UniProtKB/TrEMBL annotation:
It comes from the Bacteria. Gene3D superfamilies: Winged helix-like DNA-binding domain superfamily/Winged helix DNA-binding domain (1.10.10.10). SUPFAM superfamilies: Winged helix' DNA-binding domain. Pfam families: HxlR. It comes from Streptomyces hundungensis. PROSITE patterns: HTH_HXLR (PS51118). Residues 39-137 form the HTH hxlR-type domain. One of its GO terms (molecular function) is DNA binding. Keywords: DNA-binding, Transcription, Transcription regulation. This is Putative HTH-type transcriptional regulator YybR.
Length: 150
C-alpha cells in the first residue's frame, strides 16, 4: 500500500457522507460509494478507468507533456477525445494544465500529487494485464474455438 493512503480495502470503515444512501445497507457507513447511482465517486471512477483516462494518466506519469506529445503517446486517441479527457481529469484534480503566454501558445499537462497516486495504481494494473496477456490470449483462443468463432 502506498505511504499516506488510507486502507481502501472493500471492508474498510469510513465515515458516513453524501453517498451513504447505498443500494446495500451494509455499505451505508461509506463516505462515498460508487455503487450508489447518485454518488459523485462513480463519475470520477469512470473518468479514471475509461480507456482514454487510464492511458492519459499512465502517459503523464512519465512527466509533463504538451497536448500533441500526449496525443502521440496515447496512440489512437482523437484530438476531441483527448481534450475531453484532459478537461475531466483536470476537473477531478488529477491533471494540472499550465498555459504559457508564448506565441504560439504552449500548454503543458502534468499529474497533480493525487493524479500521481491514481496513476501508480493504474500502472500496476496495466503492467499486471500486460504480463498476463499470454494467458488471456490462450483463453480467448479456447473460447473462440469452443464457440466456432474465427
Amino acid at each position: 500500500m502506498l505511504e499516506g493512503m488510507d486502507d481502501i480495502s472493500p471492508g474498510a470503515e469510513r465515515t458516513a457522507g453524501p453517498c451513504a444512501e447505498a443500494a446495500d445497507a451494509a455499505d451505508a457507513d461509506l463516505a462515498f460509494n460508487v455503487f450508489a447511482k447518485a454518488c459523485p465517486s462513480r463519475r470520477t471512477l469512470e473518468d479514471v478507468t475509461g480507456r482514454w483516462g487510464s492511458l492519459t494518466l499512465g502517459a503523464l506519469y512519465e512527466g509533463s507533456l504538451r497536448f500533441n506529445e500526449l496525443r502521440r503517446r496515447v496512440d489512437g486517441v482523437s484530438e476531441k477525445m483527448l481534450s475531453q479527457t484532459l478537461h475531466s481529469l483536470e476537473r477531478d484534480g488529477l491533471v494540472h494544465r499550465e498555459a504559457q503566454p508564448t506565441n504560439p501558445p504552449r500548454v503543458d499537462y502534468e499529474l497533480t500529487s493525487l493524479g500521481r497516486e491514481v496513476a501508480e495504481r493504474l500502472l500496476s494494473l496495466i503492467h499486471f494485464v500486460e504480463d498476463r496477456m499470454p494467458s488471456v490470449l490462450d483463453a480467448q483462443q479456447s473460447y473462440d474455438v469452443a464457440r466456432g468463432a474465427r
